[in-house]
Write a structure and sequence with these properties.
- The chain is an alpha+beta fold and 516 residues long.
- The chain has 23 helices and eleven strands.
- A hairpin with a 3-residue loop joins β10 and β11.
- α4 packs antiparallel against α16 and α6 (125-145) runs antiparallel to α7 (153-161).
- The longest helix is centred in the N-terminal third of the chain and has 23 residues, at 72-94.
- It is elongated.
Length: 516
């Protein structure tokens, strides 16, 4: 097979190794990753106009628009497979200045690493889309930096692809500024603001309506992994705050040894780049972004007081709580240093079997030491179908003449339904039904509650504790209530149910209208 064909095939191989079981019929529902058959485009919260902090702007709007022509189950599979393929193809393009073996090894690390595994399981798909766009952005911005004639769309399109969420938009903007250079920062800033305008405007509209809980700094602080502490976790692109989504292989000694080998190769690559060669200019261009990503990732762990102040008092400071998200800024530089280091090491071997043996091991080693990313993250990600009752309840809600928003009870953010094989997921009802919803945005981490930012959600929670909860809910603009009968706490709602009017009743869902 020619080099060109290897370059095209390898990203597909890795993507299918990860996503094969997710291609079955149905939806992959894991933590924040919630796709539904059709996201109603008319809902105000889809456009960031609801009461909640607009974290899913503009990703929800993009999904709702896509659902006009593509069903949700197909869109999700295209997004997941496409993100991994695009990440690998972009890395191959970014590393084409190196030999094929080094190029493939750097690409493997870019795709097959803890960052991708952890963000996939926790369901941060807009972040994965942005991650896939980063190497394409690097390639185009390096050409801009060198003063080459580059068509505007070659760097604007990948920059726009990073703007599906606030955090990913910041990541894309920082990388573009770093690589293009400060001499061109004016143009980059203007374009970055333009493509991120949806969430910026939505965020400004919510300014002053709620602030982030500083207790979230400790909850979201980067965690040690692979026996190498917090700094080691960050430098190996891991350390996500939720220990339940970390691959089991990260606790093995093989992960520790692999990280040490990886860093040794990167050091060789950095030294070679410092002395000159194909990696010199990319390293200089990417180093500032990598430093920013590393510093932000470690803020909550090493200077929590400073970050708590930023989160509480600086508008938009909550974007920095989950600092590990910004480790994406290290990944392009690391891929380049891996390729540069292997080029040096392989060059010291005579041609033929010894050289290709070393390169072959380097290409496959990330997969071998973290095999539990394969096959749906070791079986954690499987496609399931929504129960038939959910569609029946959707029709009942669509036919209802009740005015007001929808409230799903019990009033908690996450579920672990039996029909999802007990896997934890952000309550899908918030997106499934054709009515703007009030959602509890409090987050429980290790038994501690991180308060949400939605003042209306707090008001609804208070209404549920009122002497006449039905009247209090109506006063808060709630017109419909859905009770998930299989969720913990559903049995405690009898007092409220007595004052509501049922319009649909099933084994798993009951839909009520709140009387005027």
């Amino acid at each position: 097979m020619s080099r060109r064909r290897w370059g095209k095939a390898w990203p597909w191989v890795m993507a299918l190794l990860v996503c094969a079981p997710m291609l079955a019929g149905g939806y992959v529902l894991s933590y924040d990753m919630v796709f539904v058959p059709r996201l109603d485009i008319a809902r105000s919260d889809v456009w960031g106009l609801g009461s909640a902090t607009p974290r899913a702007v503009p990703s929800d709007a993009v999904v709702a628009l896509a659902n006009l022509v593509v069903p949700g189950w197909l869109l999700q599979k295209v997004v997941l497979v496409g993100s991994l393929v695009a990440a690998g193809a972009g890395a191959m393009r970014m590393l084409e200045r190196f030999g094929l073996g080094a190029q493939l090894a750097g690409t493997t690390w870019y795709v097959w690493n803890p960052y991708v595994a952890e963000r996939l399981v926790i369901g941060h798909w807009p972040l994965l889309v942005a991650y896939a766009a980063l190497p394409w952005l690097v390639v185009a911005c390096l050409q801009v930096r060198a003063g080459e004639g580059v068509r505007w769309w070659r760097w604007v399109v990948p920059l726009a692809a990073t703007a599906l969420s606030p955090a990913s938009g910041v990541i894309g903007a920082v990388l573009a500024l770093s690589v293009c250079g400060w001499r061109r920062c004016g143009r980059v800033v203007v374009v970055a603001v333009a493509v991120n305008l949806p969430w910026i405007v939505a965020g400004l509209a919510h300014a002053g309506t709620g602030r982030s809980d500083p207790a979230g700094v400790a909850a979201f602080a980067l965690r040690p992994e692979a026996g190498l502490g917090r700094l080691g976790a960050a430098l190996s692109l891991g350390g996500i705050w939720n220990a339940d989504v970390v691959p089991d292989s990260r606790s093995l000694v093989t992960a520790t040894v692999f990280c040490l080998l990886l860093w040794a190769v990167m050091v060789v690559g950095a030294v070679a780049a410092w002395r000159g060669g194909p990696a010199r200019e990319p390293m200089r261009a990417l180093a500032p972004a990598a430093v920013v990503g590393l510093v932000v990732a470690l803020l909550g762990a090493y200077v929590p007081g400073l970050l708590e102040w930023v989160v509480e008092f600086v508008p938009g400071g909550g974007l920095l709580r989950d600092g590990a998200r910004y480790l994406a800024l290290l990944a392009p530089l690391q891929a380049i240093l891996v390729a540069a280091g292997l080029t040096v090491l392989a060059g010291r071997l005579r041609t033929g079997f010894p050289r290709w043996s070393v390169l072959g091991v380097a290409i496959l080693l990330p997969i071998a030491v973290m095999p539990d990313l394969a096959w749906g993250a070791g079986g954690r990600l499987q496609a399931v179908s929504y129960p038939a009752e959910w569609e029946q309840a959707r029709e009942a809600i669509a036919d209802s003449d009740a005015t007001g928003d929808l409230l799903v009870l019990p009033f908690s953010a996450f579920r672990a339904p039996a029909w999802n094989d007990g896997r934890v997921v952000l309550d899908p009802a918030g997106r499934y039904f054709p009515r703007s919803s009030v959602v509890n945005d409090d987050l429980v981490v290790s038994g501690k509650v991180v308060a949400g930012e939605d003042e209306r959600a707090r008001a609804v929670a208070s209404a549920l504790e009122a002497d006449d909860p039905a009247a209090a809910l109506r006063a808060e603009g709630i017109g419909l209530v859905v009770v998930e009968e299989d969720a913990y706490g559903a049995d405690d709602l009898d007092a409220l149910r007595a004052d509501l009017e049922p319009v649909f009743s099933g084994d798993q869902l009951t839909v009520y209208e709140v009387p005027e």
